[in-house]
Amino acid sequence: MGVMTETYSPAQTVEMSGFSLDTLRYYERIGLIEPVRRAAGGHRRYSDDDLGWLDMLRCLRGTGMPIAQMHTFAELVRDGDDTIADRLALLEEHDANVEAEMTRLIELQRKVRDKIAYYRGALAELPVECVRD
Amino acid sequence: MGVMTETYSPAQTVEMSGFSLDTLRYYERIGLIEPVRRAAGGHRRYSDDDLGWLDMLRCLRGTGMPIAQMHTFAELVRDGDDTIADRLALLEEHDANVEAEMTRLIELQRKVRDKIAYYRGALAELPVECVRD
DNA sequence: GTGGGATCTGGAGCGCGCTCCAGGTCAAGC
DNA sequence: GCTTGACCTGGAGCGCGCTCCAGATCCCAC
């Protein structure tokens, strides 16, 4: 009795991965995902491995990695274990980019909040003529 | 002797605002910036006020506000002082969005770093066969 | 007054990342 | 068997935010 590997329909995969059906097919088309196993009739059956990889893509995409770079990463994964150092380097660089982006965001958010504070002040100062009754 | 208000050429404004020349003109075209004062020959002369507004746009745009919403904000500004509460509300909502975005980023960055840690481990475990000399 | 760089205008084009569509096939319930 | 809905493929379309281009004008230095 071999271990039965779970498989998932496209609809289930949409549900579980958070990607749209079109995006799943798109990613497969452009080679971000290896060709997905098919059931007899040609319908896709995603594996747990596929789901894991999709989760990886979600992390990378969700942190702003461009598709071209995800593609590079996918190729490294495909090329086997002796690309691990390269993958690590790529992820570390990405992590640095994310960090920089967050720093930038924090900086600008601070300025937005200054503006908010300014408007709060302005609002407190001039309601003299606003309420009439 | 009236106070001479400074004005800036397009090139200077590019330099100071961080927006490209094309973007400056684009923003003006779509109404994100009020029509900029012109010198005799038709060349733009940006004012300190313009610069201030551009800085505002840079904050909003840089924190991911869509142009449509910046447009809404610009209209509120144009409509005068009794829109201050609305502007405040808009900025506060935006601030909340930025906050949510940062939370999302932090969460995903954590996962990316987990992957990095995983690869570091993998790298430490299998270099047995890698170095041969 | 002439050359060369900055600027002007209106409009077309582009890069990214999907998203949608048409026209057909597959699969499960009645 | 038939219906209905999920799924298939290849390719076109789109929304956003710029970016580029052509052809003309302006302005400053020499």
TrEMBL record, chains A, B:
Q: Per its UniProt record, what InterPro entries does this chain match?
A: DNA-bd_dom_put_sf, MerR-type_HTH_dom, MerR_fam
Keyword terms of this UniProt record:
DNA-binding
Query: Which positions, given as ranges, span the membrane?
Result: none
Entry superkingdom: Bacteria
Ranges for domain HTH merR-type: 7-76
The record, for SUPFAM superfamilies, names: Putative DNA-binding domain
A matching Pfam family: MerR_1
The chain's coiled-coil residues are: none
Q: Do you know which PANTHER family this protein is assigned to?
A: HTH-TYPE TRANSCRIPTIONAL REGULATOR ADHR (PTHR30204:SF98), REDOX-CYCLING DRUG-SENSING TRANSCRIPTIONAL ACTIVATOR SOXR (PTHR30204)
What is the protein name given in its UniProt record? MerR family transcriptional regulator
